[in-house]
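For consistency, the fold was encoded as tokens, as this record shows:
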Amino acid sequence: MSRLLEELKIDLKFVGSHTLQPRWFKLLKVALLAGFAVGYWLLFGAMKTLVFLAVFFLLSLLVHLVYRAKTDTWKRSWLDFVVVEENGGPRPARIGVYYYSAVVLNAVLSLIVSQGLG
């Protein structure tokens, strides 16, 4: 259990500190997801919203874990995740179209699953 907590701390530190996106963009993503969830709730109800969020976060966790594993915890380049050497160590420099395509696909699949309930 302590290893899991350590890995979670590493991930949270990375998400908060990376420069792959500006801080304002990270905050905008959270605000957009929250606003979308509220609107979805008002339009389709609690159950469909909870299913959407559960599926979306589960698929997003899967994408995160795949990138984490393939990049050796963000130390090497893989697919559209680019790591550069800076000050004697690896630094994530860029993430691109495959990652963002996966996020959009996650949202579409989550919509399909949540709407398929009715």
